[in-house]
Amino acid sequence: MTEPEPARDAEQRRKDVLHRLQHDEDAWVATASADGLPYLVPLSFVWDRDTLLLATRRTNPTAVNVTPSGEVRVTLGHTRDVVLIEGTAETQEGSELPAASADAFAAKLGWDPRDRPAWVYLRITPRTIKAWREVNELAGRELMTEGVWID
């Protein structure tokens, strides 16, 4: 087993998280039904207006599950470079979305949900963000709390 890299400081972790949010295309999105049944699915996203913007069919469990409480968890990366986001999701129709946001989604991901009437956007506002690579970064993993970046 190789030695872990030195722990990043909070500033570097924040930069790394923002880079992933701006450049990654896919995330794991976890929701739960009203009766507590968990649901995990990969979805493509764009970082837009300090939120994650995703799209899915309005009848898919992910869209249905966010309606009652809006609670959602999103992860980026793999097990040795984790970004864990907890936040609130809201559904938005394509007609409700600012054109710049929908255009950014289409440009980054190469398809446009506005052309698909059975689809809705999900806008996730982060409440907490944690990031770590190895056990040596667990102590300082919380980078955002209550929607505010920790300095």
CATH class call = Mainly Beta
Q: Helix count, per DSSP?
A: 3
**Total individual domains:** 1
Distance between the termini: 34 Å
Shape: globular
What CATH architecture do you see? Roll
Widest sheet: strand ordering: 1-2-3-6-5-4
Under CATH, the topology is which?
Pnp Oxidase, Chain A
The whole-angstrom Rg is: 16 Å
Question: What does this protein look like?
Answer:
The protein has helices spanning 10-23, 61-66, 99-109, and strands at 26-32, 38-48, 51-57, 71-78, 81-92, 119-132, 142-145, 148-149. The relative contact order is 0.21. The N and C termini lie far apart (34 Å). The longest helix has 14 residues, at 10-23. The chain has a single domain (10-149), classed as Electron Transport, Fmn-binding Protein, Chain A (Pnp Oxidase, Chain A, Roll), CATH 2.30.110. It has 151 residues and is α+β, with helices and mostly antiparallel strands. Strands 1-2-3-6-5-4 form a 6-stranded antiparallel β-barrel. Helices cover 21% and strands 43% of the residues. β4 and β5 form a beta hairpin. The model has no long low-confidence stretch (mean pLDDT 94). It contains 3 helices and 8 strands; from the N terminus they run αβββαββαβββ.
